[in-house]
């Protein structure tokens, strides 16, 4: 897919205020600092489109972008960041859960997972929730440039094994590096396929 146009539309905390649900929507979620905003910039080839930071907790609202005037891309705040106050964490969880359950044009959620780590309970629980709610999702293993391919593969296999304990069918997965721009064609090709269905 060629990205001819990528435009920031709005940030807000309420699903009712999101853009009209008339186009297919793809949301990017995962733990704080996993690389959601960086992946969005890599996919769209727009360096500063989504705001990134080396400090976790940068993205705090539901951010809508419109791509090629054909589909929405959404940058969400991360989950599982310990340094945020309990009150804020509860507020974010409520906002994200409400968005995921209510957004009727949500075509697929991309759950980002840091490819450096072995399977984490917080990620497995989040995907368990998506699966039980019937929310379509795929997995994206980020920051693959940070270690060897075999180490990444080992962590991916571990996730797939854990997922297959709960589900008959394991979700599709992608391996990406925003640094080395790998996985871009695969992710965009997947979105193209869904948009054409
Ligand atoms: P929050 O909005 O805080 O939840 O974080 P985020 O998931 O949007 O992460 P963000 O894209 O802001 O990236 C966090 C840090 O990881 C930044 O310092 C990025 O430069 C770095 N980073 C993101 N993706 C990659 C990658 O593929 N490779 C490497 N080496 N670093 C990355
Ligand atoms: Mg972010």
From TrEMBL:
Domain of life from the UniProt record: Bacteria
GO terms of molecular function: GTP binding; metal ion binding
Annotated SUPFAM superfamilies: P-loop containing nucleoside triphosphate hydrolases
Listed cofactors: Mg(2+)
Gene3D superfamilies membership: P-loop containing nucleotide triphosphate hydrolases (3.40.50.300)
Keywords for this protein: Cell cycle, Cell division, GTP-binding, Magnesium, Metal-binding, Nucleotide-binding, Septation
Protein name according to UniProt: Probable GTP-binding protein EngB
Lineage, top ranks: Bacteria, Pseudomonadati, Bacteroidota, Cytophagia, Cytophagales
